[in-house]
Design brief:
With 171 residues, the protein is of the alpha+beta class. It has one domain (1-169). It has helices at 2-10, 67-79, 130-144; strands at residues 14-17, 28-34, 40-46, 103-104, 117-120, 148-149, 156-160, 165-169. 19% of the residues are buried.
């Protein structure tokens, strides 16, 4: 849990504030699991089912690549004998900026008994808008690097030059 809290603090996911009188904080919980080799993983998740439409979130849609598009990209890579690299963005959802004002109770075990709550500044796992906010952040970043987003498949980005061709497939 300490490692997860370090990630949350590093990404400045929230700041502690006094709860405004007319607000009710949402709750959160720890999700714990054992991975391979008895490695323990803890993730703090917001209880998104408490969110109210048009108050706590507006848009939730985030595109997902279709299987036929993925097969097509793989066929192009094989046909052109290109190299494939796979990357994982650790704590990806924590990078999405929030537009809504959301208050959350402090996580169990890390409550400073200050009476303050977490004002979320970035997305947190469990929020309904978290996938969309991450997708928007990633798209803005990758387009800034001169990649073109395909019109027919929002999860595929391409950058071509005389020397190279780079495809990024967001999954």
């Amino acid at each position: 849990m300490n490692e997860e809290m370090e990630s949350l603090n590093k990404n400045e996911v929230w700041k502690l504030v006094e709860l405004p009188k007319d607000e009710k904080p949402m709750t959160c919980k720890w999700v714990l699991r054992i991975k391979r080799n008895n490695v323990y993983k803890a993730r703090l998740v917001a209880r998104g089912f408490e969110q109210k439409p048009d108050i706590d979130y507006c848009e939730t849609y985030a595109p997902v690549i279709s299987m036929s598009s993925l097969r097509l990209v793989l066929a192009i890579i094989i046909q052109k004998n290109l190299e494939i690299y796979a990357l994982d963005v650790k704590t990806a959802f924590l990078n999405g900026d929030l537009q809504e004002t959301i208050y959350m109770e402090q996580p169990m075990g890390y409550n400073h008994n200050s009476g303050r709550v977490c004002k979320l500044l970035k997305s947190l796992y469990g929020l309904k808008q978290a996938p969309r906010q991450w997708f928007k952040r990633f798209t803005d970043f990758i387009i800034h690097l001169n990649f073109q987003q395909l019109n027919c498949e929002a999860c595929i980005f391409v950058r071509r030059s005389k020397q190279s061709e780079i495809f990024i497939v967001l999954d």
